[in-house]
Amino acid sequence: MKKIFLSLIILFAANCAFAYQSFFGFSVGLASGIPFYGSSYVNDCNKSMSDPSRIIVGTLASANFNVSDNATFFIGSDLICDFIWKGSQYSNHLNYDFSLGIKVFPNLAGFCTGLAYVLGARTDFVETDKVSKFSDTSAWGNGIKILAEYNFAHDGKSRYYPTLGMYWKILPRGSHTWDNSICAYIMANL
């Protein structure tokens, strides 16, 4: 057992020493997308205004551990803000989560796919003519995030090139409801 453990440490150290990328990296970015709410009450609040304005914007950040040229482990967080309003009426939703996952680069330049465990919740702020003012936070849920992205900095020429990507996130929100999000993002690699 000690020999296997020692062999794994040596292999890990060799990957880190001879990889094109540095072992540790950090990424921050902007996102936008389409949330699909599983709660009929949230959907009714969103539909209670006729012809509303809507902005969906978010931010994401991750710490990346490049264990080899073909695999990166990451830990990160996302915040997607869904603002719906008309005059003084509003139905705003903040979707926030923390993720832990892996990205695999199948030797197609900087293209990668990934899978992550996600722990997150949603907070709603609503006041419309049909719904009295309230705020509510959903139960925290354990879900998954499936992603595909292209990292222009993966070849090692410069770590400051951006990453473009998309993800699909599935999160339970309690009371047998699930939220789905499809988002596109651009990230800066620091």
Can you offer a commentary on this structure?
With 190 residues, this protein is mainly β. The protein has helices at 2-18, 40-47; strands at residues 24-36, 53-68, 71-86, 89-104, 111-127, 134-137, 141-151, 162-174, 177-189. The model is unreliable at 14-19 (pLDDT under 50). The radius of gyration is 20 Å and the shape is elongated.
Can you summarize this structure?
This protein is mainly beta and 190 residues long. The protein has two helices and nine strands.
Helices, strands, pairings?
Blueprint: H1 2-18, E1 24-36, H2 40-47, E2 53-68, E3 71-86, E4 89-104, E5 111-127, E6 134-137, E7 141-151, E8 162-174, E9 177-189
Antiparallel strand pairs: 1-2, 1-9, 2-3, 3-4, 4-5, 5-6, 5-7, 7-8, 8-9
User: What structural class do helix, strand and pairing data support?
Assistant: mainly beta
Question: What is the strand content?
Answer: over 45%
Radius of gyration: 20 Å
> How many individual β-strands?
9
Major sheet attributes: 8 strands, antiparallel, barrel
**Rounded mean pLDDT score:** 85
In the predicted model, the low-confidence regions spanning at least 5 consecutive residues are 14-19
Helix-strand pattern: HEHEEEEEEEE
Oligomeric state of the chains present here: single chain
Terminus-to-terminus distance: 38 Å
Approximate helicity band: 10-25%
Form type: elongated
| Strand arrangement, major sheet | 1-2-3-4-5-7-8-9
How large is the count of helical segments? 2
